[in-house]
Amino acid sequence: MKTALITGASRGLGRALARELARDGWTLIIDARDAVALRSAAADLGRGTVGIAGDVADAGHRAALAAAVADAGGLDLLVNNASTLGTTPMPRLAEQPVQDLAETFATNVLAPLALIQAVLPSLRERGGAILNITSDAAVEGYETWGGYGASKAALEQLSNVLAAEEPGLAVWWADPGEMRTDMLRAAGEDADAAPPPEEAAAALRRLVIDRPPSGRHRAADLAGAR
């Protein structure tokens, strides 16, 4: 039985992708900052799902996730989905508080790398995969999205280099596109007009199943390739 660790899985894309993998029989370890929402997600995903509440930017929480991986006997897939928008309302770069940006990078870049480091031996042993959730804001010049986009661009390059350094693993960085989520709503966008996260999750499931070579993917392209 395969095991996946998915961060930020209490709602939105993380929860939708966890549901897809649960249907395929995966053992799941999930996390989120909201303990109540996480318990609801774990119950929805079924028996055997391990939910650990906490912040991925916290070293103690990441240690708990790594311990859960060891208890499960290893790891086949790490999904770094948890992230933060940073400063809201989202400012232009001229007004971007630098300390806020440092905290954004701590969550969106440093925490994923630290978690990768913590579970890398298990992933190497199983020839596993890493899926880092990024954004079109990493490659497009959207006004007010500079702080968040810069953090996602850093995550993309981290993924790119990791793919070169770990040829025994599949390393994917994927742009899910706009989704009907609380995060998009918090960014001031019309979230109600966006497709539900279940659509992107189904596309990312295809990525996991087909296991293409390491690289950047868009959920829209994966969905169109069916």
UniProtKB/TrEMBL annotation:
Q: Which family does it belong to?
A: Belongs to the short-chain dehydrogenases/reductases (SDR) family.
Q: Does the keyword Oxidoreductase apply?
A: yes
Q: Which GO terms describe its cellular component?
A: membrane
What is the species of this protein? Actinomadura rubrisoli
Supply the InterPro entries for this chain: NAD(P)-bd_dom_sf, Sc_DH/Rdtase_CS, SDR_fam
Q: What is this protein called?
A: SDR family oxidoreductase
What GO molecular functions are on record for this protein? Answer: oxidoreductase activity
- Entry keyword set: Oxidoreductase
